[in-house]
Fold:
Amino acid sequence: MKRSWFLVFFLLALAAKADADSGAQFDTLLGFQLNRSDLGLVEAKLGSAIQFEVPDGHHEFAICYLIDGDTTITFNSGHEFGGPERELLGFSINSGNPNDFPCAVLPTSERNLSLAGISLDMRRNEFLRVMGMSLQTNTKKTVSRIFSSVRKLTPAELTQITGKPWSEGLSTTDVTMGVVGHFENDVMVAFSAHRVETF
Structure:
């Protein structure tokens, strides 16, 4: 089944007020941190994979890896926010393979896919406990939470934007983080996390 994680994420962001927490505990998987890694770095560590454009993904690019033939991890970037470097904006883990493209095989040493206490096959009530009370969506098949925070720009980032027409007085960036769990019969079959920084 096709899933456009970015589309889900942004629709949720528009439909609900974001949480005041940063959600930083969910921004790193297998050592790859959202907005700090890119698809090239993922391939350098996990092995070569075919980059593909996600159908209906609004210029969303991805690479995927298959584990034991029945679990898929997908790393996402995007044209507008990810830039030419294909900055890592999100990842998702699914039972089965939801992509229309063949996935590379994930090395045996990289099969710990727990994310801050979240893992496939966990019960819905366990996921709710990890997510806390501030939920944007809580339906039979989907539970989501959106986090919003402000980050101070580093000296290197301030230097990089100096001279831009919109940079005067700018010292921070807005951070939006979304975590979504999908369930069948109260058992998790997929989860994803996305993070976007905007000036």
User: Anything to note?
Assistant: The chain has one domain: 5-198. DSSP finds five helices and eleven strands in the chain. The CA atoms of residues 69 and 117 lie 23 Å apart. The radius of gyration is 17 Å.
